[in-house]
Model the fold of this input.
Amino acid sequence: MEVKIKNFSHTTADGMVNMVSILKKQPSLRTASAYGEVYLNRETFLLLRKNALKKGDVLTIAKIAGIQAAKKTSALIPLCHNILISKIDISIKLNIKKSLVEITSYAETNAATGIEMEALTAVSVAALTVYDMCKAISKNITISNISLLSKTGGKSGNYNKINK
Amino acid sequence: MEVKIKNFSHTTADGMVNMVSILKKQPSLRTASAYGEVYLNRETFLLLRKNALKKGDVLTIAKIAGIQAAKKTSALIPLCHNILISKIDISIKLNIKKSLVEITSYAETNAATGIEMEALTAVSVAALTVYDMCKAISKNITISNISLLSKTGGKSGNYNKINK
Amino acid sequence: MEVKIKNFSHTTADGMVNMVSILKKQPSLRTASAYGEVYLNRETFLLLRKNALKKGDVLTIAKIAGIQAAKKTSALIPLCHNILISKIDISIKLNIKKSLVEITSYAETNAATGIEMEALTAVSVAALTVYDMCKAISKNITISNISLLSKTGGKSGNYNKINK
Amino acid sequence: MEVKIKNFSHTTADGMVNMVSILKKQPSLRTASAYGEVYLNRETFLLLRKNALKKGDVLTIAKIAGIQAAKKTSALIPLCHNILISKIDISIKLNIKKSLVEITSYAETNAATGIEMEALTAVSVAALTVYDMCKAISKNITISNISLLSKTGGKSGNYNKINK
Amino acid sequence: MEVKIKNFSHTTADGMVNMVSILKKQPSLRTASAYGEVYLNRETFLLLRKNALKKGDVLTIAKIAGIQAAKKTSALIPLCHNILISKIDISIKLNIKKSLVEITSYAETNAATGIEMEALTAVSVAALTVYDMCKAISKNITISNISLLSKTGGKSGNYNKINK
Amino acid sequence: MEVKIKNFSHTTADGMVNMVSILKKQPSLRTASAYGEVYLNRETFLLLRKNALKKGDVLTIAKIAGIQAAKKTSALIPLCHNILISKIDISIKLNIKKSLVEITSYAETNAATGIEMEALTAVSVAALTVYDMCKAISKNITISNISLLSKTGGKSGNYNKINK
Done:
């Protein structure tokens, strides 16, 4: 049963947007992992796979774009705190059966707030970069299933997505 | 039947990443519209709707974040050209039946290259901002169906997604 | 009587600009609050008030712009240190008698240097955003009285402006 | 008598924020000049003047900060279009009688929209930088009278502030 | 014989820094190519070469960093105008005899001012990224010979470096 | 004799780029100093020296550009961690005999990773700014000898370049 006191942390009692204060919170170790998919049509997917096997540049550029974007999270999401990122990594796999690109990010920090938004931003921008690389072939591309896989640390504790 | 000359515009013949030259292309009017969804659980959705009805701040902040992000597209996506944006707008609707937030962006430019990536970046960052506003309630949030709805102008002509 | 040893902290003995070293200073809790005003003519003010009462978007966008700008302070002010902001908030009130917009910011950090410039930058950019929203009606707009209301923490201790 | 059709260019008919489309507007030559003041107490002013006479660094850094900020205007003010700046300059004078720093900016563009916000942003950030340089001496500093001195070009024509 | 009227374009007659006005200049096609070298000790060079042959990631990341930096040139160099970049590319070669990394950039624009600083910034940041990748092996690394190889277009005409 | 286990800290065992985790490292005091040179032809050098003696603006602007760039290091170098900079300073000397500009940076941090890249980035961008100020006189300019002079702190200990 849901407890009634739950509310948006970023809004005040009267519904106005508001950044949460983390002044009194001690820094602690936190991690987050996020996931997202880019659906391509078969033709585009096979070209991407060919490049990935041969040169790898297309996936490397998406990975670097995601890493760089994670560091810009607080500039992109208005109420995000700026934090020191201890590590941000992205791995990209090609799912041959489904013609899709699977992007997973992993982020670490020793901060007074969580690093979920950095992990999600990294995945989103890596996915947009895959899109950008592939859009000349076909516009029939969809980015889906961007979600949090897991997090550790912080007051709300650990989280693991069920049925990823 | 697919023509064989199709290839990634951002890679050279030997598969290395590469920014397309737009030096010889004349600027022309171009537009793009993109779409994305944020799936919330029922509790979170109802809280968001309550805020939207009462104060609207939560959706306004997502809209502004998306507009600002569109202007940063070339800083986020490595091989995107920087262009002058003539207009970027975002509209957000709450789909009460499905407990989802529907985000649509619309972008205009008079440039030598298209504005699809700006429209898609705007939707993605607006969706991440909705996520950020709602994540204190539940981590069970998914961003999906980010795709191009339509584009006009440019050498590749107009495009309209079928079965949006 | 003024003590003679006072000097600019950002200049060396021979007058050259210089960033203060905060290497040996321990982080400590600090807050700052700043204030600024935007003077509008009556027509513009009444339109702004009408929007604020009805939709609120115009003031929300100024607030978000100020919050985002606070996070960019060290990129804007050359000798400012980059710090971790624990909270930054902006409240905007309409002074109906005087046709002016009153902007107050409040900032918190646990850092080795103060957060006054972040509070002042937030107010300045929120004021510029109000200006931008109103300038189509009349160019007769003035931003004034940007000043520090108060600060707490740090070696120089607390400060409260007299006769705000 | 004021014409009734005047409205915020950045809001739609129902009061929502909105970026103006400049897609159909041709680029044209436009300039803008803005002004602002930093009030210092006598002690701080005399120290600043001493540095200005001897080394000049303190005023040079404020000038450069203002020039750099002008280029960031569209990143700071949410509904500002990004434009190509043809020139941005700042001049800073010390008013010895009144113990104040007078900052004037001048900006040029060949664009489909005006350059007033760039001129105003330049003055604001130059003023904040003067503040930052002086704040170690006294917190009794006020930034005031930020306003548009003049503009040329564009549909709304030329403007000159009366009684600067 | 040198003509006496030559002077810094970025300073006024009395030596103050100043951004050149390009308001009256028409856009025209311009290109620039720049070059730079990173000297490594033998051990580091061989490790880099091994990675380049096997995976290529280390050189790809330097290339992308350089491309991204070119787009930030006007934010890095205070008096640079922001321009629209039509293309920016970087190629990196390993000089096995001399244990050095040779970085060449090529940039294009249709602008009212040149693109030399973008080409030079791209090379500099690509070189710094190579440095960053290699510094764990040895700090004995030197970035040298950053210079303009050639430029075309603009009032000052074409330029080709002799004895590259 | 070199130990065989040395490897790039930014690559995984299979050669893919990767940001090092600093999650478990405690912050500690670290400094770094870097150096770089800008070679000018005699005519350009004498003009620069004349400005430096008379007004100083040209060197001040390069210094400020370098300081600002240091704060952007993690946005420029893809695998650099964002850190809090305790101090960054740049000094510029004119070597009259050799017609060259000597740039030295000094950086401090209390962080879980080193500050060498910030010191090197500061020198590189200060050098590019000198280049930009001088390029109207002659394109015969070379930036060279960018290297680390010294570092203190961190697991790898102190370092001093021999034969600076």
